[in-house]
Design brief:
By secondary structure, this protein is mainly beta. It contains one helix and five strands; from the N terminus they run E-E-E-H-E-E. Strands 1-4-5 form a three-stranded mixed beta sheet, with no helix packed on it. A two-stranded antiparallel sheet has the order 2-3.
Length: 116
C-alpha cells in the first residue's frame, strides 16, 4: 500500500557524525481482498509534533474526510472516526488461525471468493 506525505516516519537523534538519522519505521499493510473492498483507501503520513514519530492516518473513503482545523494529540489534524466493521456473512464461521497463516478457502464457507 502506498502513502502520501513524508518518506520517513521517525526522526532519531544527532549522531557523532553530526547527522540526524531518519527512518521509515511505520508502514501500512493490506491484503488484496481488503484493497478490493476499500479501493479508495489511502495512508497519509501526518506532521510530526511533540514526538519523534510521524502519526499515520488510514482513510478508507478520502472523499468523506473533513480536513478542517481539527486538533488532536499531535496538535494537527486528526483521523476521522473509524468506520463500522464490514461483516460478511460468508466469513462468520471461518476460524482465525492467529499465527498469520492464511485461512484455506476449502470447505470453510468461502465459496465464490477468490483464493489468494
Amino acid at each position: 500500500m502506498g502513502y502520501l506525505g513524508s518518506r520517513f516516519t521517525w526522526k532519531g537523534g544527532i549522531r557523532e557524525s553530526r547527522k540526524r538519522v531518519f527512518k521509515r519505521l511505520d508502514r501500512g499493510l493490506a491484503n488484496p481482498i481488503w484493497r478490493l473492498v476499500n479501493p479508495e483507501a489511502k495512508l497519509e503520513v501526518l506532521t510530526r509534533i511533540n514526538s519523534d514519530h510521524h502519526p499515520l492516518c488510514l482513510t478508507t473513503n478520502p472523499d468523506r474526510v473533513d480536513r478542517g482545523m481539527a486538533t488532536g494529540p499531535y496538535g494537527g489534524g486528526t483521523c476521522p472516526p473509524p468506520p463500522p466493521p464490514i461483516i460478511c456473512p460468508h466469513l462468520r464461521s471461518v476460524p482465525a488461525t492467529g499465527n498469520g497463516d492464511p485461512v484455506s478457502a476449502g470447505d470453510r464457507g468461502l465459496h465464490g471468493y477468490p483464493q489468494i
